[in-house]
Amino acid sequence: MKNTVFSDEYRQETVLSWLDNLNLLYVAFTRAEQNLIIFGKNKKQLISLENIKNVSDLLQWIIFDKKTVIPRLTQDSLENDFYHYETGILTNICKTPEETTANPLKQTPPPMYIDYVSGEFPKGKSVFKQSNQSREFIGSDSPANEKYITYGNVMHALFASIDTENDIDKAVDRLVSAGLILPEEKDAYKDKIHSYLQNPQVKDWFSGRYTIYPEFSIIVKEEGTITTKRPDRVLLSDDATLVIDYKFGEPRRSHETQMQEYLTLLQTMNYPNIKGFIWYVERGDIVTH
Predict the structure, then answer these.
(1) Fewer beta carbons under 10 A from the terminal one: N or C of the chain?
(2) pLDDT score of 146 more than 50
(3) HEC letters along the chain
(4) 76-102 confidence digits (pLDDT tens)
(5) Please, what are the domains in the chain?
């Protein structure tokens, strides 16, 4: 490579490679607490710096320059020369006894023995587990003619990632990368969401002038059980609190009950001027509370 048009690049890459190795060598040498013992391969034809190809060669070259080098012959003295360099005194390797302390954070817990027992895999049955959020988008008991991907859940996931209209393309592309939207469908999703946001009231919700809390979690206790209520979008300004729930089906009475529950909870939390909106996205209707 030195004799080609890439000689400059080769030289630069070689220098950087050497630098990385020297840094690694420094780290390794400075980790020893009491004694440092190094073994390196002996290169017989180490006449000049040009012969140095690796860290072992470099160490050998340095040792040859030391007056304290002691050549020692092994049983195969004619073929293998052994060079030994020492400095300092070997110390006993002993651990300092740990101080007894009543502080549980500074105590070393005793080792625990854990026994893993593997069971027989059931014959004729495979177990499929989903380790990511895809389970939220798959209807396991859906009719055969229903799409596996639930449209409403996909749309909820998209709107949760959109703060302003400028975020639409990125949100759709992210779900395409996650395999939740087919590549050939992404333009249709982008066009749909852009059209949904043309409503002046909706456009204000995505204007960026509010502090946005998508999937706003409210922890409550009901009949002795801790549960979570999660309106789709909560918008805060200095003088207003807007609660928005997206719906992609037909209006139901339960939607009204759910929204009223959100508003009551936020009122008990002393949020100012609370208003609720149920947005039936496909229909273009907005029900105000």
Answers:
(1) N
(2) no
(3) CCCCCCHHHHHHHHHHHHHHHHHHHHHHHCCCCCCCCCCCCCCCCCCCHHHCCCHHHHHHHHHHCCCCCEEEECCCCCCCEEEECCCCCCCCCCCCCCCCCCCCCCCCCCCCCCCCCCCCCCCCCCCCCCCCHHHHHECCCCCCCCCCECHHHHHHHHHHCCCCHHHHHHHHHHHHHCCCCCHHHHHHHHHHHHHHCCCHHHHHHCCCCCEEEECCCEEEEECCEEEEECCCEEEECCCCEEEEEEECCCCCHHHHHHHHHHHHHHHHCCCCCEEEEEEECCCCEEEEC
(4) 443 556 667 777 788 876 666 666 777
(5) 7-84 (no CATH), 133-198 (no CATH), 204-288 (3.90.320.10)
